[in-house]
TrEMBL record:
Function summary: Fluoride-specific ion channel. Important for reducing fluoride concentration in the cell, thus reducing its toxicity.
Protein name in the entry: Fluoride-specific ion channel FluC
Subcellular locations according to the entry: Cell membrane
Organism (species): Anoxybacillus andreesenii
PANTHER family (UniProt xref): FLUORIDE EXPORT PROTEIN 1-RELATED
Family that this chain belongs to: Belongs to the fluoride channel Fluc/FEX (TC 1.A.43) family.
Record comment: activity regulation: Na(+) is not transported, but it plays an essential structural role and its presence is essential for fluoride channel function.
Annotated residues for binding of Na(+): G74, T77
Membrane-spanning parts: 28-52, 64-86, 98-121
Length: 126
């Protein structure tokens, strides 16, 4: 039962961080393009990939791993927002922007996860 509290606390932290990133990117770059969602998804993909293979992370108690992976990173990133942002761009007739947004999000997410995995492996060998 205790693990659910850790995940819930992590979820609250991740949600607040996500909102903060969205506010910052909107303030800096405006609302014409959903840059905040791209940022959180790429950062989250990298962190999840890195933590998956990082030696220090594997040594943590399982409740802390769940709090970080499922709680913080899981609530920090989102597929539902990516989907609604892409649909909104398409509805506004911004087809090229929607394709770019989906491409960056998906390909960038894979690349960031791969980079994170590689960094975690490298860290474990030192």
């Amino acid at each position: 039962m205790q693990i659910y509290l850790y995940i819930g606390l992590g979820g609250a932290i991740g949600s607040c961080l996500r909102y903060l990133v969205t506010l910052m990117t909107t303030k800096l770059f405006g609302t014409l393009f959903p840059l905040g969602t791209i940022c959180v998804n790429l950062i989250g993909a990298f962190l999840l990939g890195w933590f998956t293979n990082a030696t220090f992370f594997k040594r943590l108690d399982s409740k802390y791993i769940a709090a970080i992976n499922t709680g913080i990173i899981g609530s920090f990133t989102t597929l539902s927002t990516l989907s609604i942002d892409a649909t909104t761009l398409i509805h506004q007739g911004q087809f090229l922007e929607a394709a770019f947004y989906c491409g960056i999000s998906i390909i960038g997410g894979f690349l960031m996860a791969f980079l994170g995995l590689r960094l975690g492996i490298k860290e474990g060998k030192s």
